[in-house]
Write a structure and sequence with these properties.
Elements (H helix, E strand, L loop, with lengths): L7 H10 L1 E4 L7 H13 L6 E2 L9 E5 L6 H9 L2 H9 L5 E10 L7 E4 L7 E2 L3 E7 L9 E4 L8 E2 L22 E2 L13 E3 L7 E4 L5 E3 L6 E9 L4 E2 L35
Parallel strand pairs: 9-10
Antiparallel strand pairs: 1-12, 2-3, 3-4, 4-14, 5-13, 6-15, 7-12, 7-14, 8-11, 8-13
Helix pairs in contact: 2-3
The structure holds 2-oxoglutaric acid.
Length: 273
């Protein structure tokens, strides 16, 4: 019988709130992941993006879909207990890797991560989804990930926009709000309306959040490297979007309602070693 490390209260909180903080579960992997991020920065993929502007004092860069060429990422995905932890949180028998995403704010990076939810950018949906966001540096409250409690259960998703230009991500505009999306909220302007979950975290802690959960972050005065592993569970299915998706996964050849193809999106070990 596999041991269980996420306590039932945390699993219930994940279902109710759409985000939880996990303390110290990945401490042994911090050096491995940090080596992977250094390799990633030295050998960026075609998806590498500097989200800032030329006058910024520190960059906010991100890159993704590199797990099969960065051995440190691959080892973490397949050899750590992240799959089993995700299975417990999602209450899922299976855990399938969607992709990894690295987000680095260099000291002084002024750029905020805009309030958004990930689902409309992705071509997969389900009640069983989770991103495991792992800081590789100490992160104080002022620069940590911020999430709106319960927003994974909202009826309408936040209108997806480009992080760099703010334009509609599908090549659309404001009218899209009437077609099933809501505009990005501003929780700081409406503190009575939205409850924010945010935790000061240490390297190897994690914030686990549902693909539907609305989240954002401020800029950072210090180096803030984060490694986010995104996985889906039993009920997640491919969904055709009305425009491009991120990541794009060109040529995937899937159709509405299909499980993600396992040759591109492999199953991870879903029980503890
Ligand atoms: O690290 C950040 O600032 C944002 C992270 C994020 O948006 C994500 O992992 O989906």
């Amino acid at each position: 019988m596999a041991s269980v490390r996420v306590d039932p209260t945390t699993v219930d909180a994940y279902a109710a709130d759409g985000a939880v903080c996990l303390r110290g579960l990945f401490t042994d992997w911090v050096d491995v992941l940090a080596a992977g991020v250094a390799r990633n920065e030295a050998e960026p993929s075609g998806f590498f993006n500097d989200n800032g502007t030329s006058g910024d004092s520190g960059r906010f860069w991100d890159d993704y879909c590199n797990w099969d060429r960065i051995p440190e990422y691959e080892r973490f995905a397949f050899e750590s207990e992240v799959g089993a932890i995700a299975a417990e949180l999602m209450r899922s028998e299976t855990v399938q890797l969607f992709h990894e995403h690295v987000l680095v704010k260099e000291p002084g990076a002024p750029r905020h991560t805009p309030w958004h939810c990930d689902t409309p950018y992705y071509f997969v949906e389900g009640t069983q989804t989770v991103s495991i966001w792992i800081p590789l540096d100490p992160v104080p409250l002022e620069s940590t990930l911020r999430l709106i409690r319960g927003s994974h259960l909202w009826d309408a998703a936040v209108h997806p926009v480009s992080w760099t230009t703010g334009d509609g991500f599908y090549g659309d505009d404001e009218t899209t709000h009437s077609a099933g999306f809501r505009p990005a909220p501003d929780p700081d302007a409406e503190p009575d309306r939205f409850e924010i979950l945010e935790w000061a975290v240490e390297p190897g802690d994690a914030v686990a959040f549902h693909f539907n959960t609305v989240h954002g972050a401020r800029g950072s005065s210090h180096l803030r490297r984060a490694f986010s592993l995104r996985v889906v569970g039993d009920d997640a299915r491919y969904v055709e979007r009305r425009g491009r998706t991120s990541p794009p996964f060109d040529g995937h050849d899937m159709v509405d309602g299909q499980r993600l193809r396992e040759d591109w999106f492999p199953m991870l070990p879903a029980v503890r070693h």
